[in-house]
Amino acid sequence: QVQLVESGGGLVQAGGSLRLSCAASGRTFSTHAMGWFRQVPGKEREFVAAVNWSSGRTYYADSVRGRFTISKDNAKNVVTLQMNSLKAEDTAVYYCVGAYATTEYNYWGQGTQVTVSS
Q1: 30: pLDDT confidence band, cut at 50, 70 and 90?
Q2: Residues 108, 5: contact at Cβ < 8 Å?
Q3: Rounded to whole angstroms, how far apart are CA atoms 118 and 113?
Q4: CA-CA distance, 27 to 8, in Å (whole number)?
């Protein structure tokens, strides 16, 4: 089993920045990738960003590319999402995700609220 715990959400004005972190614990030796999704009430979860745990290759949704940066710390099993130039449309619950022993995201965190006021 793997546990994912997010931190760093909150309220920020448009144009501001927030930093989300996700710490993984448990059977993390088979990490394939970690990333972030987000969800607005009434809408489907949306991919935000991901990082391949071995290669470090990063992936971004078009809507956040150039504003968000995902990074990882293999030793600490932590993935971080630096969010800059935030917009009102970035308001959502952000979920940390992990792919362990598979290429599919099979573990999810509880989610952390990000609210951007315009």
Answers
A1: confident
A2: no
A3: 16
A4: 24
